[in-house]
Design goal:
By secondary structure, this protein is an alpha/beta fold. The protein folds into 3 domains: about 190 residues, 3-Layer(aba) Sandwich (Rossmann fold), CATH 3.40.50; about 160 residues, Rossmann fold (3-Layer(aba) Sandwich), CATH 3.40.50; about 190 residues, Thiamin diphosphate (ThDP)-binding fold, Pyr/PP domains (Rossmann fold).
């Protein structure tokens, strides 16, 4: 399907304009074509990296993008390229761009696009497509599909460009849609016939648009800010919850100042870890099950009351039943006014971009802000101390084979010694244990499965993190989660990226010790090949593979990977009985009632 050979030659005129320095376009030759206009439009808007997979009808576009100076990272599967583009958008506040072929390749990229939209990551999926007149009459073209119609249901916006003179507008609209307001995924459909179209070069140059202020500041109303502060000032047990929207905003200094000047305990959601160090004295992470039901006023900063926070209701929040509201009053900072009241009443919505909202709160905070009552702070500190001590006791054990705690104790130490390293994390138990055990010290250094809890982000996120940051990446993967994107270790090796993959291998999904209830020869559907040598996969492509069965072996391998910056995969063998069904969200996995 993705064969590079095309049914029609992808030709361009000999004289095409060349992009100038600084993203501007030099005075062009007599004619230009669709290929060059796409390239010039992207460069004009500061897009310098493309993630994708070449094939019909975008093979030549990929070549020409590279020739024009853009970095083109070619993957083994479009879904992984899409995940890479989406997390690049989160890290940079610029739309990450994924380029795919038509129909099947487009659909592969759609999973990542939908995930980007759900997570509010700015991303643009650009896909080639088949001839419109044949698709619309359903006459059976090569990879025939109305891709625009499919994308609309799962993207923030979707556009199709049919004429070369509209390419500048199409790219500009995609960029603005991806970044403005609540960020999200945007689809841009480029039919095969668009690329060889030629127009006057001067007209082409004039058709391009450099997007100005695509994400303008949205200043909150002063009365909304005052209402929020009045509610917080009167709280006896206040709590701040930081979401990944707060991390995306890159208003790190102001968010820290707000937390510290108010003295309010805070709870970071997983991708907000590191906005303040997890070791900060106001962190309530180790007392989460206490602070959520006990808080009387909760301020949400870039966090949504979705399933990750039990919709703000139920026993998590002190409610008497799964649908009952616990009685908390909520302040919610969000760029979308429609987010307020989506599950429970929001008493003080503050609508605007997070940076502007937090700045406005600080501006009206005053110098005599009252600290939260000592009883509240002492109660949290007591539970935090108790729970941390309990965890440290578990981490100190050295069972054979390793379990999640003993293996992740090593990762914890490595991350502490290398706080600039980016940690990518996915799995069920591998995700849950890593999130609670491994402390983060700097913002946007933890990338994980996000709002959907989708598996398969691991290698795509790792590649993008290494490409965007140029720094060390550590990917902690469950053996099941790794299987969704594992072939991308070839991509890691091909681009010689400093990625250290640690697979917590317990031979299966959740656990590796489940048996076939019929006694037949087939294994349980949750069990993998025993003793799988995942490290050999990295070795096959020239990287470093290590089999680690003890914490000491794991530590040595990780330290060497970081020292050498070579692509490394560590197969960390842990007890196959380690882990629980569905990790910490077992309640979402319906089980059959046992017969008496």
């Amino acid at each position: 399907m993705n064969d590079a050979a095309g049914k029609k030659p992808e030709t361009t005129p000999a004289d095409t304009p060349k992009a100038g320095s600084g993203g501007e376009v030099d005075r062009p030759a007599q004619e230009t074509d669709g290929f060059q206009l796409v390239i010039d439009a992207l460069k004009l808007n500061g897009i310098d990296t493309i993630f994708g997979l070449p094939g019909i009808p975008i093979t030549d576009l990929a070549r020409k993008l590279q020739r024009a100076g853009l970095r083109v990272i070619s993957f083994r599967h479009e879904q992984n390229a899409g995940h890479a583009a989406s997390i690049a958008g989160f890290m940079t506040q610029k739309p990450g761009v994924c380029l795919t072929v038509s129909a099947p390749g487009f659909l592969n990229g759609m999973t990542a696009l939908a995930n980007a939209t759900t997570n509010c990551f700015p991303m643009i999926l650009i896909s080639g497509s088949s001839e419109r007149e044949i698709v619309d009459l359903q006459q059976g073209d090569y990879e025939e599909m109305d891709q625009l119609a499919v994308a609309r249901a799962h993207a923030k916006a979707a556009f199709r460009v049919l004429h070369a003179e509209d390419i500048g507008v199409g790219v500009a609209r995609a960029i603005r849609a991806a970044l403005s307001g609540r960020p999200g995924g945007v689809y841009l459909d480029l039919p095969a016939k668009l690329f060889p179209q030629t127009i006057d070069a001067e007209a082409g140059r004039n058709s391009l648009i450099k997007v100005v202020d695509p994400a303008p500041r949205q200043i909150p109303a002063p009365d909304a800010v005052q209402r929020a502060l009045d509610l917080l000032r009167g709280a006896k047990r206040p709590l701040i919850i930081l979401g990944k929207g707060a991390a995306y905003a890159q208003a790190d200094a102001d968010i820290r100042a707000l937390v510290e000047r108010t003295g309010i305990p805070y709870l970071p959601m997983s991708m907000a870890k590191g906005l303040l160090p997890d070791t900060h004295e106001q962190s309530a992470s180790a007392a989460r099950s206490y602070v959520l039901p006990e808080a009387d006023v909760v301020m949400l900063i870039g966090a949504r009351l979705n399933w990750l926070l039990s919709q703000g209701k139920g026993k998590t929040w002190g409610g008497k039943s799964p649908k009952a509201w616990g009685g908390q009053k909520f302040v919610q900072i969000d760029i979308s006014p429609q987010e307020a009241d989506s599950n429970v009443r929001i008493d003080a919505p503050v609508v605007g971009d997070i940076g502007s909202c937090v700045s406005a709160l600080l501006g009206q905070l005053g110098s005599n802000w009252p600290k939260p009552p000592a009883e509240w702070l002492d109660a949290i500190a007591e539970r935090r101390t108790k729970n941390v001590a309990k965890m440290l006791e578990s981490l100190a054990k050295d069972p054979a084979p390793m379990n999640y705690h003993s293996a992740l104790n090593v990762v914890r130490d490595i991350v502490k010694a290398n706080p600039d390293a980016i940690l990518v994390n996915e799995g069920a138990n591998a995700l849950d244990f890593t999130r609670s055990i491994v402390d983060m010290y700097k913002p946007r250094k933890r990338l994980d499965v996000g709002t959907w809890g989708v598996m398969g982000i691991g290698m795509g996120y790792s590649i993008a993190a290494a490409v965007v940051s140029g720094g060390q990446v550590i990917a902690v993967e469950g053996d099941s989660a790794f299987g969704f994107s594992g072939m991308e270790v070839e991509t890691i090796c091909r681009y010689d990226l400093p990625v250290c993959v640690v697979i917590l291998n317990n031979n299966g999904v959740y656990r590796g010790d489940e048996a076939n209830p019929t006694g037949g020869s087939d294994p349980s559907p949750l069990v993998f090949v025993k003793g799988a040598r995942y490290e050999k996969l990295m070795e096959a492509f020239g990287g470093v593979g290590v089999l680690a069965s003890t914490p000491a072996e794991l530590r040595n391998a990780m330290e060497e990977a970081i020292r050498s910056r070579r692509p490394t995969l560590i197969n960390a063998v842990i007890d196959e009985k380690a882990g629980t069904e569905s990790g910490r969200i077992a309640s979402l996995n319906p089980t059959a009632k046992k017969k008496p």
